[in-house]
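Repro case for the chain-ordering regression, as requested:
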Amino acid sequence: MSTLDIDVRPQSGPPRGAAKAAPRGHHRFGDPVFRVVALVCGLSVAIAMFTLAGVLIYNSWTAIGELGLSFLTTVAWSPNGGSYGALAALAGTAMTTVVAMVIAVPLALVIALLLTELVPPRVARVIGTGIEMLAAIPSIIFGMWGLFVLVPFMQERVAPLVMDSWLGELPLLRPGPMFQGGGFSILTAGLVLAVMVLPFITAFSRDVLLMVPRVTKEAGYGMGSTTWEVLRKISLRYALSGIVGATFIGLGRALGETMAVAYLVGGSFLEVPRSLFDPGTTIASLIALQFNEATTKLDISALIYMGLILFVITMVFQVLAQIWLRRARRTTGGRA
Amino acid sequence: MSAPATSQNGAGPAPAPLKALRPRSHGRRKAVDAAIRVFAWVSATAGIAVMFLIVWEVVQRGFSAIDWGFFTELPPVVGEDGGGLGNAILGTLVITFVAALIALPMGFFGGIWLAEFGRNGRVATGIRMVANVNMGIPSIVVGVFVFAALVRPLQHYSGFAGSIALAFIMLPVMARTTEDILNLVPNELRESGLAMGAPRWRVTLGVVIRAARSGLITGAVLATVRVAGETAPLLFTALSSPYWLQGLFGPEGFFGGPTANLTKTVYDFSGMPYERMQELAWGGALVIIVAVLGLNVVMRLIFQRGKEW
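-- result from build under test --
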C-alpha cells in the first residue's frame, strides 16, 4: 500500500461542506439510504452465522436431550443397532488432522521461506501461483484422485512395505482389528488432507514472513547468519504468532474437509482406529455418508448434533487463528 | 508490500541470547543451510507436481467421455452405454447462478460498509471477525444447516436450497474481498470526489468502485467459481436427479424438487461399479477442473492483481 497512514475519510456521513454545497436535494436521502443498505448487508454476514448456530442447536435438541454428553464418549455410530456415538469419528478426525498437519506445516513453512527469501519475486510469483492452484482444485477431485490413484498405491506398495519391516511392529503402525489392507485408511486421508491444506498454510505463512521488517533480517545477515539461521532465529520468532494463526487456519480446514475424506478414510464407524493404516471415519465424512441413511427423527437429530459439534470445534480453531493473526499484525505494526 | 522499515522501531523481537555467539563450525552451518534450501525446493516442486499429477489423471481418464452428447444428454440407465451429464451441468449452472445473484450483491455492499463506513469501529471489527470465522465453517455444516432450516420444514429437497447453501459460503468471501480491494484505493480519490460536492454514495459507487473495478470482478468470479466446485453443501439440499430441470415449482422444478448437479452426480457415479458411469464421472471431473482452473488462470491473466503472490 502506497497511501499514507493518515486517514482522512470522514468519520460519519458526508462532510458538512459537501452537504452545504450540494446543488440537488437527493443528497439528503441518498446517503442515509446507501449507508443503511450497506450496513444491513454487512450485518447479514453476522446474522447468517448466528442463524446457523441457532438452527443447529434447535434441530439437535432431541438428540442432545436423549443422548446428552455421553454422545461424546460413546464409541460406535450405528443407529440401527441403537448406538449413537461420536467418539470413533472424533478420534478419526483428530488422527487425520494430525497426520495432515505434521506433513503440511513444515512443507508450508519452507515453501513460504522459498517464496520470501530464496527466489526473486518473479519466480516466487510463478511458484506461488502453482501452489495456489492446488487450493482451487475442488475437494471432490482430490477424493476421486485419491480413490483411483493413491488408495491402490498405498494398498499395494506402501502398506506391505511397512508391514513387512520392523516398522509394522510400532504402536501406531501395527495393524489394528479393522485393518483392511491399508488402502482406505487414516494415513491415506491424512496425506490428501495435507496436500489440500498446504496452500492455505503457505499463503498465510508467507504473508506473515513478509511482515518481518527488512532491517531486522538484514541485521542478521550482516552478522554473517545463513538464510536458515535468519529464518529460525529472527523471522520465526518475530512471526511466531502469525505462523500459529496460519497453522490453525489449516487445522480448521482439515477438521471440516468432507468429500476427499469420505472417499478415502474407509467409513468404518464402529471402533476407534488403532493404527494409521486402519480405516476410520471423521465427523464430516460420517455426516456425508450417513445422512441419507437416517430414517428416524433421532437419527437425523443425532447427525445434526454431530454437525453442531464439528461447528463448535472448527469455530474454536478459527477464532484462535484470528486472534493469533491479529496479534502478529499488531506486533509488526500492520492494520489489525 | 513491505511496510516502511523505519517505522518499526521498538517492535523487534527479543535480542538473541548470547549463547548464539558460541563458535560453531562454518561448514556445518553452511551444510544445514544448503539442506534447508534443497528441502524448500523439493517441497515446492512436490506441491506443484501433485497439482499437475491430479490434472493429468483427470484429463487422461475424462477426455474419452467428452463429446457433444456429454453436454446435451441425460445420464444413461445404470449399466447401459451412451448418455451424458447435460442435466447435471445445466443444474450446476443454475444453482451457482442463483447463489451468486443472492450473495454477490450482499457481500459487495457489506464489504463497502466495512471499508467505507464501519472501518475500525467496534461493529466493523466484530463483523470482520465473524466473516473471517465464517469462511472457515466446514461446507458440510452449511449443508446440514440449510437442510435443517429449509429442506426439513418444506419436506422436499430443492435446487434453491442448494443455492442458499452456496450463497452462505460466498457471502463472507465476497464481503472480505470487496473490503480488502477497496482499502487499496487511495484516499485522495475519495477526497477529490467529496470536494467536488458529490454525495458519499456517488463517490463510493462512481469513483471508488470504478477505480477498484478489475479487482472486484476478479474477486466476484473467483468466489463464484469456488462454490461451483463444492459438493458437500449440496448433498442434502439440491440432492441429485436423473432428470432435466423443469420449470420452477413442480416436482422437477428449481424450487420444487431435487435438482441435478455436476458435483453430486460425479460423486455418485464415481462409486458405481459400471465402466460407463465411472467414465462419465471422470468426464464431469474434467469439466469441473477445466472450468475452475481455467477461470482462475484467465482472471489472473486479465487482471494481474499485484496483491496476490
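Ordering looks correct now. The radius of gyration of chain B is 25 Å.
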